[in-house]
Amino acid sequence: MHTPYKAIIFDLDGTLLDTLADIADTMNAVLLGLGLPTHPRQAYKQFVGDGVAKCAERVLPADRRDAATIEFCKEAFLVRYANAWKKQTRPYPGIEELLRRCHTSQLRMGVCTNKPHEVAVETLHHFFAPDTFEHVQGVVDHLPRKPNPAMLRGLLGHFALNHTQVVYVGDTATDMRTAKGAACFSVGVTWGFRHEHELREQGADLIIHHPRELQHWLGI
Fold first, then answer.
1. Is 25 a catalytic residue?
2. What's domain 20-81's architecture?
3. Closest C-alpha among 24, 23, 21, 51 to residue 174
4. Is 194 exposed, middle or buried (0-12, 13-18, 19+ CB in 10 A)?
5. How far is CA 101 from CA 1, 60, 217, in A?
6. What is the DSSP letter of 94?
7. Rounded Cα gap, residues 169 and 174, in angstroms
8. Of 72, 81, 58, whose CA–CA distance to 174 is shortest?
9. Handedness of CA 148, 78, 42, 190 (dihedral sign)
């Protein structure tokens, strides 16, 4: 292995897994239950990335974005999503090979996501071998969500590494801001939910269009 980095930390939705269809279909079912307009799946690329509550706020009509309705949608989504998260969700092409290369090269791996922590762990264990990721951090009550860097800094502590030894990989402006907040090298991926220009505007240190490009850059 030629890379000076010791660990790579990934975002989950839009980076490792294409979760868009299951998220969109689940939230649309919640909206239908309230008699509210739904959205095309592709529109959810702009709604997701900042946690379930923020997604609920974004999908609701402007005159229904009160705290009680947002909370209801969030909880209703989580109940439905518990039975829907693996219907159409799949790893992006090339991700499984990238993870194998990282493992073979003894590059430690973790996940930092705005998905609820228990859901994130269950999802990762379903799609990848249980020992793939050394540490996983999803949303919990005592830590602020990304782009606050607290979750990512916590993972650095778990790895016992400093920010110069870790690469953070994600697909949204939120991810790039998170990486910058923790002073980690940021890799923006274009196969996820947002456009390349958004990643560049947020100061991505590297932009890639396929997982194999990260393999080549890391020298693995």
1. no
2. Orthogonal Bundle (1.10)
3. 51
4. buried
5. 10, 42, 12
6. T
7. 11
8. 58
9. positive
Instruction: Give the CA angle between residues 181, 187, 190 to the nearest 5°.
Output: 125
| List 11, 13, 18, 171, catalytic entry | 11
Q: Is 3 helix (H, G, I), strand (E, B) or coil?
A: coil
Show the tokens assigned to 31: 């909206």
150 has a pLDDT exceeding 80: yes
Superfamily of domain 7-18+89-218: HAD superfamily/HAD-like (3.40.50.1000)
pLDDT digit string, tens, across residues 69-105: 999 999 999 999 999 999 999 999 999 999 999 999 9
Instruction: Return residue ranges of the chain for CATH 1.10.150.
Output: 20-81
Alpha helices, DSSP H, located in the chain:
20-33, 52-59, 67-81, 95-104, 117-127, 150-159, 173-181, 196-201, 211-218
Which residues are within 8 A (CB) of 188 and not within 5 positions of it... i.e. 6 or more apart? 170, 171, 175, 176, 196, 199, 200, 202, 204, 206, 207, 208
Query: Tens digit of pLDDT for each residue in 20-40?
Result: 999 999 999 999 999 999 999
pTM above 0.90, yes or no: yes
